[in-house]
Write a structure and sequence with these properties.
Elements lengths: L1 E4 L12 E3 L2 H9 L4 E3 L2 H32 L3 E5 L7 E6 L1 H10 L15 E3 L1 E10 L2 E10 L2 H8 L4 H20 L1 H13 L13
Length: 206
C-alpha cells in the first residue's frame, strides 16, 4: 500500500513523502495512529491543503520536545528487581515500567515513547532511547539491581557477578580449610606432585 506520511517516521521518510509499506503495517500502525494517509488522488490534494497546518503543528511539538529533551537527556533512574545469582531477572523491566518511573520523576511519557526493542531481563547498566518526537530522541541511563547497595556498586562500575563469584570462592576455601584441614593438605600435596616428575635418585655403585 502507498501512503502519504503526515510526519517523519524513522526508516520510512519525512512529512509529505509517499512511501510503499505492507498493508498490515499501514492499517494497524500508520493509518490508525494518524501518521499517514492512503496515497489516493483525493488525499494527495487534501495533504497539500493540510501541509502548512501540519508543518506549524510539527514545529510547535518539536520545540516542546526539545525543551523536555534538554532536561531528560542523560538522566539516571534505578529499578530494583529480584534476580538469580547470574544476574537474570525473575521477570523483566518493560517499557510500561520505565514510562511510569520517568513520569514519577516529572516527565510525562507514554510507553510508546520508550524505544526498547525488548524488555530488560538482566541486572546491570542499560542505555534506553526515548523518542520525545519523531525528530527528537534522547538517552537515559537505567540501573537494574537487587537492592540500593548493589545499584551504587553498579553505578561505580563494579562487575557485580564477578565480585560475587570471587567472594564465594574465597568463602568456600576458608570453610574447607577450617572444617577439613586434612583435605586441604592432601590437595596441596597433589598440586605439588603435578608440577612434574621428580628425578629418581641414582643407584649406588657396589
Amino acid at each position: 500500500m502507498e501512503v502519504i506520511l503526515l510526519e517523519r517516521v524513522a526508516k520510512l521518510g519525512q512529512m509529505g513523502d509517499v512511501v510503499r509499506v505492507k498493508d498490515g503495517f499501514a492499517r494497524n500502525y500508520l493509518l490508525r495512529k494518524g501518521k499517514a494517509l492512503r496515497a489516493t488522488k483525493e488525499n494527495r490534494s487534501r495533504f497539500e491543503h493540510m501541509k502548512v497546518e501540519l508543518e506549524a503543528r510539527n514545529l510547535e511539538q518539536k520545540t516542546e520536545a526539545e525543551k523536555v529533551a534538554h532536561k531528560l537527556d542523560g538522566q539516571s533512574f534505578t529499578v530494583l528487581r529480584q534476580a538469580a545469582e547470574g544476574g537474570q531477572l525473575y521477570g523483566s523491566v518493560s517499557p510500561r515500567d520505565l514510562a511510569a518511573l520517568v513520569t514519577e520523576a516529572g516527565f510525562a511519557l507514554s510507553r510508546a515513547q520508550i524505544a526498547l526493542n525488548a524488555p530488560i531481563k538482566t541486572i546491570g547498566l542499560h542505555r534506553v532511547p526515548i523518542s520525545l518526537h519523531p525528530e527528537v530522541e534522547v538517552m537515559i541511563n537505567v540501573t537494574v539491581a537487587r537492592n540500593a547497595d548493589e545499584a551504587q556498586r553498579l553505578a561505580r562500575g563494579e562487575d557485580i557477578t564477578v565480585v560475587r563469584e570471587e567472594g564465594e570462592e574465597a568463602a568456600a576455601a576458608a570453610a574447607e580449610a577450617f572444617f577439613e584441614p586434612e583435605a586441604v593438605a592432601a590437595r596441596r600435596s597433589r598440586e605439588e606432585g603435578d608440577e612434574g616428575p621428580q628425578p629418581e635418585p641414582a643407584e649406588e655403585k657396589k
